[in-house]
Amino acid sequence: MHDTSPLKFDPFEPSAQIESLLTAVASRPAACEGMRAMMQREPEFRSPLEAKLTGIALDPPGRYFADQVLDAYWSDEPRKQDALSSSSTDREVIIGSGFHAAVYAATRVLCGYQKPLVLERNERAGGTFAMTARPTFYLNSRNRAGSGGLAGDQRASLNYLPGAPIQAANVSMLEYQTNTDVAFTIRLALAQFADVVTNAKVLSVSRDGTGAEIEIEDRDPLLAGRVIDARGLGDPYNQDVANGTTVLTFPQFMQRMASMWPLRGVRRVGVVGGGDSAKCAVESFLGIAPQPFMAAAALDSVDRIDWYSDELPTTCDRWQQEIRGRYQAIGRYLRPDRLGMRRLNVLGRRARPVALPGMGLIDGRTYDLVVLCTGSRDTAIEGLDLASFDEYTIPNANVVAREHYNLPAFRVGPHARLPFTRQEREDGVADISANAVSMFRTAYKTAALAATLRAVTRE
Asked: What integer pLDDT is reported at residue 106 of this predicted model?
């Protein structure tokens, strides 16, 4: 029988990767100023480690350099091979490197178990929030200090990552934080609590004795004792319609917004969809999203935005009544200006664009750029389809994940499509449909799974 006793782990002791990061930053004069300055406030933190990482996070040159150090470490091929070859039926493997991967890894290690191996199909670890290295969109939940909690608790931090070396509230004072603020906390948690392999596209997962065999594109098969499927929301639903130039998916558009002169030559645009991604795209076109790189109003102002959705109010008054506070600023652009012109027009219907050379076409109208924000669908991995999972309940009778009927595998986070609990309905969390996939609702479900699962064994 394999020894399953928990390991001893000091949460305030930096991992080898974090120690290497701190050394690299300290050796770079242009990057270490924030870290050294924050040590003047060390008594206000739980540990010197948290103080140092907070100083790096709050100093733009320090954070930029730290991100480069993390990317270089995770992209090192010999280190990847070592991490993959060390996996066995004793180890847990997490597919995806986003928020819930970090929550699971942190909770698991803090409970005394071995570091999981994290497989990320893209070059950059950190999931959706790390899709760009520059800030491109704001989060929905307010930036507040404190521990985690529910939406109605004004003393709770809704962007809280259980177990992380630092929290999102350490990173900025913005009312609504940017994607890169949360991405940095995710990436630090992964560096502290997991071994990460990037550019590892999982093709299939199958049974292998009491464990699982994972097939990875262009690599040898990998053995795991347990698989945690933490792939997030999946791929854009209508990505086959996009051509990557004039018709873009939301991730493609965010990549564009992180590049130089993202709105150059863009005067008339179309946005398709009515969810949070569409609202973030419209904010970018209106100039009320995070500041684009090398963009200025005199050079890069969009003249007209046609928004195709049958879910949204079409007037400013209705917008103020029906749309939650995070997106209220958009509503004022639904009013005509003093000349009777409107930059933003909500067209109450759905649309399917056609990509043409140099333009996008919707219902006979041509656009310099069209952004598709029509939701996401599961990324296909053979053996891990949703129909193979059922609700997994912990002793308090709450559903915290989905468990595979045959494999030692669990789905977590928004990817698991977890039902609202009775308490969440009573607290009003379920009143906003988007909360079905929100971090504050699902983070503690993932942490509860990690804290209650038994150790992986050979038998």
From this structure: 97
- Which of 363, 153, 371 minimizes the C-alpha distance to 257? 371
pLDDT in tens, 430-447: 888 878 888 878 899 999
- Is the domain spanning 16-234+379-452 CATH 3.50.50.60? The answer is yes
Closest CA to 299 of 312, 311, 287: 287
Same fold for the pair 16-234+379-452 and 237-375: yes
**Which distant-in-sequence residues (6+ apart) come within 8 Å of 23 by Cβ?**
none
* Residue among 411, 409, 416, 410 nearest 437 (CA): 416
Q: CA nearest 294: which of 325, 256, 320? A: 256
The larger pLDDT score, comparing residue 157 to residue 259, is at: 259
231 Cβ neighbours under 8 A, 6+ residues apart: 95, 96, 98, 378, 379, 381, 415
E strands present in 273-398? 304-308, 344-347, 354-356, 359-362, 365-367, 369-372, 376-377, 389-393
- Read off the pLDDT of each residue in 322-340 and give the average, rounded to a whole number: 90
Strand pairing class (176-178; 92-95):
unpaired
- 363-385, pLDDT tens digit by residue? 999 999 999 999 998 889 999 99
Q: Cβ–Cβ contacts within 10 Å for residue 208, how many?
A: 16
Task: Output the pLDDT for position 133.
Answer: 94
Sign, CA torsion 326/329/334/335: positive
From CA 400, how far away is CA 390, in angstroms rounded? 11
Count CA within 13 A, CB hemisphere, residue 136.
23
CB 94 within 8 A of CB 230: yes
* CA 51/CA 176 separation, integer angstroms: 23
pLDDT one-digit tens code per residue, 310-328: 999 999 999 999 998 999 9
Give the end-to-end CA distance of the chain in Å, rounded to a whole number: 7
Indicate left, alpha or beta for 96 from its phi (over 0: left) and psi (-120 to 50: alpha): left
What is the DSSP code (8-state) at residue 155? Answer: T
The closest alpha carbon to 94, from 196, 220, 215, 18, belongs to 196
| Fold for the domain defined by 237-375 | FAD/NAD(P)-binding domain (3.50.50)
Q: Which residues partner with 370 through β-bridges? A: 247, 270
Tokens of 319: 């917008």
Beta bridge partners of 196: 118
Q: Are 129 and 98 in contact (CB under 8 A)?
A: yes
Domain range annotation of the chain: 16-234+379-452, 237-375
- Whether residue 157 contacts residue 144, with contact meaning beta carbons closer than 8 Å, is answered with yes
C-alpha angle 327/330/331, rounded to 5°?
100
- pLDDT at 7 exceeding the cut of 70: no
